[in-house]
Amino acid sequence: MLRLLKSIKTALVILFLSITVFVAGSIYIPRNLSLFSDINDIPLFRWLSLNYSSIGKTFWIYLAIFLMANSLRDFNNWLSEYPFITKLIKRST
Amino acid sequence: MSHLFILLFIISLYALSLSDDRKGYRVFLIALFLHLLYVLYRTFHLGHPPITDKFDILLSAGLLTGLYQLYLKRRWIREAGYLYLLPVLFVFLALFQERIDTISSSMNSSWFYLHAGLLVIALSLLTTGSVIGLLYLKNSEHTFELLQYRITLAGWLFFSLSIIAGSIWFFLAQGVYWLWTAKELWLTITWFYYSLYLHGRYVNFLKGERAAEIGVAGVFVLFFSYLGVTPILGSPWTQF
């Protein structure tokens, strides 16, 4: 499982999915201007909770958050295995 | 001075039509000199670096691609051919942009100039990488594919720095780092796309012609996000 998360191919799949999700977003925003008009004025999670009923038009933001979180976790996994970092960790312990 | 711009376009086009021979190279040098003159004229006319609107950004990026061609022709690529394509393409695209001679007070910031300057370098490098990819697809010479990868990597680095500088500038000007607009989403898509190409190429997931084709296709994503998003998809809350 850990190998899958660290795999560069997984990162490529996440990148590809992120592109798809962002393309969807770039189509949804201009077509639903009244819904998205205040997205830039209030914090994102508050805006999402206020507009939960419109999840059919905002689903791509949830997906984007999920993919970004995965990317950060993958990056963290990769970094923690990087020889320079592992040497530092060993030295400090 | 508009006449100089039209003359520049015609001479660039003529250089492209002459392609590989020595005469073509000389005409290309004349076009490049005119290009430089016009960018200098815009600099003095505006009173600041010509990177504050799309017309000037395209023009400056075109000049840089022309200067790269001089280096590439001497060191790497003997036959010029496709290399004249880029300055012509940039000048052609600039023809359709409005010339804006004033800047808003929020844009008059060193972070904005840094953002726009890095974007000009990124545009010129990423497009140059694509044209070298075309040369590889034509000649199957491995050096071109490697060169495409390296130049695209450099362009991607400048693009990343430009996005960071742009976020800082926007935060200082408007109080936010990011806007949920089609324009911003497509800039991110462009960054993702080139990341995908570079990562895939680095781990040999993408090789040879497939890697070159994906790298070349990046130029369409790049130009769509820069010039196509606002008129085609609409990006109402984006000023720039």
Strand content of chain A: under 5%
Low-confidence stretches of chain A: none
* Termini gap of chain B: 25 Å
Radius of gyration of chain A: 18 Å
Q: Count of helical segments of chain B?
A: 8
User: What is the overall pLDDT average of chain B?
Assistant: 87
Q: Mean pLDDT across all residues of chain A, rounded?
A: 83
Termini separation of chain A (Å)? 26 Å
Estimate the global geometry of chain B from the Cα principal axes. globular
Oligomerization state of this entry?
heterodimer
Give the low-confidence spans of chain B: none
Number of helices of chain A: 6
Helix content of chain B: over 70%
Major sheet summary line of chain A = none
Structural class, from helix and strand content of chain A?
A: mainly alpha
Number of strands of chain A: 0
Biggest interface, CB < 8 A? A-B, 20 and 24 residues
> Fraction of residues of chain A in helices?
over 70%
Structural class of chain B: mainly alpha
What is the topological layout?
The complex is a heterodimer of chains A (93) and B (240).
Chain A: H1 2-6, H2 8-31, H3 33-36, H4 44-50, H5 55-80, H6 83-92
Helix pairs in contact in A: 2-5
Chain B: H1 2-18, H2 22-46, H3 54-75, H4 85-95, H5 110-139, H6 142-174, H7 182-202, H8 208-232
Helix pairs in contact in B: 1-2, 1-4, 2-3, 3-4, 3-5, 5-6, 5-8, 6-7, 6-8, 7-8
Q: Nutshell version of this structure?
A:
In chain A, 82% of the residues lie in helices and 0% in strands.
Please give a structural write-up.
The complex is a heterodimer of chains A (93) and B (240). Chain A has 93 residues and is mostly helical. In chain A, 82% of the residues lie in helices and 0% in strands. The longest helix of chain A has 26 residues, at 55-80. The radius of gyration of chain A is 18 Å and the shape is elongated. Chain A starts with a helix and ends with a helix. Chain B has helices at residues 2-18, 22-46, 54-75, 85-95, 110-139, 142-174, 182-202, 208-232. Chain B has 8 helices and no strands. The longest helix of chain B is centred in the middle third of the chain and has 33 residues, at 142-174. Helix content of chain B is 77%, strand content 0%.
